[in-house]
Amino acid sequence: MNKRYRISGTIGWCDGVGYTACMHAAYLVLASLEGLTEYLPVSSTAHLILAGKLFAVDLADPYTKFYLLFIQLGALCAGVLLFTKRILTDRRLILNLIASFVPTAILGFVFYASFKHLLEGNLPLMAAMLVLGGVTFMYLEKVFMPRLAAKGEGGKDSLSMRDAVLVGIAQAIAIVPGVSRSGVTIVVGILLGVRKAVIFEYTFFLALPTLGAAVAYDAYKSRDALMALSSYSDLIAGFALSAVVGFLTLLVLRTYLPRMSLTAFGWYRIALAAVIMVAMV
């Protein structure tokens, strides 16, 4: 057994199946959640923290932090498989992604280290951001977009360079747990007059450079943890599961993108916030 695993307790069924089986199952659940939620506007971080609490996984453990990084790479690879060809053949999209990524990278580099320890593990803040995002989604779906439609404004079919820069600046806010990287880009895109389906798709594309840079940076900082591992089997399993679940999630999202309701995501975020508040008790 790799001693870098650490689960600080057990829950329910874990007592019956044993520590090792429970440990492996908990990490596979985290990998599945990462693949399922990374590209959705529901905060993958909130899901991972909540699952870690429910399964009594020590998310502060160095190995666990590296594992979460590695499964995020799996979700990223799912996006690479689906979107790289489209990005590389669309010059305007490439320019917009650069325009969005640069402010995100600059703001992230400047503020990430300063705010990470202040924000990390702040469950009340996370719940508040989930509710705020949920209410905003409902407002956009029920009030803002119908008003635009009533004026005969169906929304723009593409982002201007200015739009892309503003989306990139907004994306930096996702450092706050519960905000959701995709959620904040969708909100800003719609407020800028971009059609819902267009900005949804753009968030998928923007995830590739944003997550890629974040994963590469964290991987560099975690290089000592990687070198100290005695087994890579669990990392490989988590990576593969996250990639497969992420790939299937993206396929479903692309199919049903035009019909997706922000209201449904809004209610889900509020329900998740309620679960987090209960878990705090």
Keywords:
281 residues, mainly alpha, 76% helix, globular, disordered N terminus
Summarize the structure.
This protein has 281 residues and is an all-alpha fold. It is built from twelve helices and no strands. The relative contact order is 0.19.
Q: How is this structure best described in words?
A:
There is one protein chain. This protein is mainly alpha-helical. The protein is 76% helix and 0% strand. The chain contains 12 helices and no strands. The protein has helices spanning 14-17, 19-37, 44-54, 62-88, 91-119, 123-150, 161-171, 181-191, 196-221, 223-227, 233-256, 262-280. α4 (62-88) packs across α11 and α5 runs parallel beside α7 (161-171).
The residue ranges in which pLDDT falls below 50 over 5 or more consecutive positions are 1-13
Query: What would the average pLDDT be, to the nearest integer?
Result: 86
Amount of helix: over 70%
- C-alpha Rg (nearest Å): 19 Å
Compute the number of helices.
12
Would you count the extended β strands for me? 0
Instruction: Indicate the overall shape.
Output: globular
**N-to-C SSE string, H for helix and E for strand:** HHHHHHHHHHHH
Structural class: mainly alpha
Strand content: under 5%
Biggest β-sheet description: none
Distance between the termini: 33 Å
Topology readout:
Elements lengths: L13 H4 L1 H19 L6 H11 L7 H27 L2 H29 L3 H28 L10 H11 L9 H11 L4 H26 L1 H5 L5 H24 L5 H19 L1
